[in-house]
């Protein structure tokens, strides 16, 4: 990885992490409710019956109210399970789903594990991000799981990253392996991007 890009990415991730840690409980709760509304509308817009999402950490915009409601109404939801080789396995979310702390302190579901190709069958992919830029390029948390997943999919469904409103930035540093997203979901809006130029 080129040194300047690595430093830029690290600095931006640290800034976003710090901003997230400063949010109050009330701000987090309001954001979770907004995210749930936006994701519900996105699922309806795409007519999705099967999606991939993730269990949010305590500092991420919460996906949990959305996930609980989606599973309760019969949506098939795949949740990621990290592997040592840098790929993601998947497990189907259940109403009473238990979870453990997986690699890097990220919550993961307990249940039957499906292989990496299970995600090829979803209608919509909802992923985490540290920041997204105005062209749809994503800054992740530096582990590469989602870049590998997206880069390996032959026919990717629409991919939306969940971020706070302030995390849509003018530009994120990027490298050849970085993958763009179709759009973003924030507590106040959903936005699709034109297909980015490489």
Molecular structure report:
The strands form three sheets. The protein has a seven-stranded mixed β-sheet. It has a three-stranded mixed β-sheet with strand order 8-7-10, covered by helices on one side. A two-stranded antiparallel ribbon has the order 4-5. It is of the alpha/beta class and 198 residues long. It has a single domain (3-192), classed as NagB/RpiA/CoA transferase-like (Rossmann fold, 3-Layer(aba) Sandwich), CATH 3.40.50.10420. Strand 11 and strand 12 form a beta hairpin. Helix 2 packs across helix 3. It is globular. The protein has helices at residues 3-21, 25-46, 64-72, 145-152, and strands spanning 50-52, 76-82, 88-92, 99-101, 107-109, 124-128, 131-133, 138-139, 159-162, 168-169, 183-185, 190-192. The protein is built from four helices and twelve strands. The model has no long low-confidence stretch (mean pLDDT 91). Its cofactor is Mg(2+). It is an enzyme of class 6 (ligase). One of its GO terms (biological process) is tetrahydrofolate interconversion.
Report the average pLDDT across residues: 91
Low-confidence stretches: none
Number of domains: 1
In DSSP terms (H or I, runs of 4 or more residues), the helix count works out at 4
Describe the sheet with the most strands: 7 strands, mixed
Say how many strands there are: 12
Question: What is the name of the CATH topology?
Answer: Rossmann fold
Q: Give Rg in angstroms.
A: 16 Å
Overall CATH architecture: 3-Layer(aba) Sandwich
- Topology as H/E string? HHEHEEEEEEEHEEEE
CATH superfamily caption = NagB/RpiA/CoA transferase-like
Distance between the termini: 18 Å
CATH C-level category = Alpha Beta
**Helical content (DSSP H or I, runs of 4+):** 25-40%
Describe the global form.
globular
* Cross-sheet strand order for the largest sheet: 3-2-1-6-9-11-12
Q: Hey, roughly how much beta strand do the residues contain?
A: 15-25%
Protein structure class: alpha/beta
EC number: 6.3.3.2
Organism: Microbacterium sediminis
Keywords: ATP-binding, Ligase, Magnesium, Metal-binding, Nucleotide-binding
Enzyme class: ligase
């Amino acid at each position: 990885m080129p040194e300047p890009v690595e430093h830029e990415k690290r600095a931006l991730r640290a800034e976003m992490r710090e901003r997230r840690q400063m949010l109050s409980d009330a701000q987090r709760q309001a954001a979770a409710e907004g995210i749930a509304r936006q994701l519900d509308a996105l699922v309806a817009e795409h007519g999705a019956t099967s999606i991939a999402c993730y269990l949010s950490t305590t500092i991420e915009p919460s996906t949990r109210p959305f996930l609980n409601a989606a599973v309760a109404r019969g949506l098939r939801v795949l949740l990621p399970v990290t592997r040592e080789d840098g790929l993601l396995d998947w497990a189907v979310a259940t109403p009473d789903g238990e979870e453990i702390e997986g690699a890097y302190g990220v919550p993961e579901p307990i249940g039957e594990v499906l292989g990496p190709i299970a995600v090829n069958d979803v209608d919509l992919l909802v992923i985490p991000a540290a920041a997204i830029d105005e062209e749809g390029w994503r800054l992740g948390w530096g582990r590469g799981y989602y870049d590998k997943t997206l880069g390996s999919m032959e026919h990717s469904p629409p991919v939306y990253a969940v971020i706070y409103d302030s995390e849509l930035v003018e530009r994120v540093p990027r490298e050849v392996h970085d993958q763009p997203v179709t759009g973003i979901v924030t507590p106040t809006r959903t936005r699709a991007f034109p297909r980015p130029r490489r």
